[in-house]
Amino acid sequence: MITLHHLENSQSFRIIWLLEELNVPYELKVYARDKKTMLAPEEYKALHPAGTAPIITDGDVVLAETNAIVDYILDKYSEEGQRLRPAQGDKNRVPYLYWFHAGQGSLMPMLLMVFIFNSMTEKTPFLMRPLIRRVTQTAATFFPMPRIKKLLGYMNDQLEENQFLAGNELTAADIVTSFDLMTIGRIKLFNFQRDYPNIATYLERVEAIESYKKALAKSEK
């Protein structure tokens, strides 16, 4: 049986959601972040050389990286998971592949860059903050923000005709990429209702899914 090692307030929420959606047995081990550094505890870091969430164990298997874990689980539970991963030749296969990887490969790295810029300002001595804030805001304006806006604009257009990222049914692409959108909403980087209304409607649809609500409840315990 799979054990999900869940670091609180982390990307491992996606894996809880996936397992709940598949309705398969699993064990959930929750790890609290260090209250001072907000980093993972040493016990968690010792699980895998990467030391980052999410991590699963399954017998002798120890696996990190969100998309690798999602593929592993969908392979293990191929019968239950086939509806979450369009097959080769399916018309939704290409958009599925794109959005499944765009969340982690394009959107999340840009968001992390924004977080780093914000953190630089917060950790700078008070008298230096105005200068550092101007520098980081200028840097964000020239690089991560235009790329984030372009990606969200494309997504918003795709959701004009589809209920989900790869057609009209939930797939693993939604489980992976909607987490990034929730993060954007939480830090108020954009106003989805105003700037990307189709994404706003999509997120309301996602939040109404029963497996999502179950995963949210488990992740917040």
From TrEMBL:
Keywords: Lyase, Membrane, Transferase, Transmembrane, Transmembrane helix. CDD domains: GST_N_GTT1_like. It catalyses: RX + glutathione = an S-substituted glutathione + a halide anion + H(+). Residues 89-221 form the GST C-terminal domain. PROSITE patterns: GST_CTER (PS50405), GST_NTER (PS50404). Pfam families: GST_C (PF00043), GST_N_2 (PF13409). GO terms for cellular component: cytoplasm. The chain crosses the membrane at residues 96-118. It is an enzyme of class 2 (transferase). Its EC number is 2.5.1.18. Gene3D superfamilies: 1.20.1050.10, Glutaredoxin. One of its GO terms (molecular function) is glutathione transferase activity. Residues 1-81 form the GST N-terminal domain. PANTHER family: GLUTATHIONE S-TRANSFERASE 1 (PTHR44051:SF9), GLUTATHIONE S-TRANSFERASE-RELATED (PTHR44051). This is glutathione transferase.
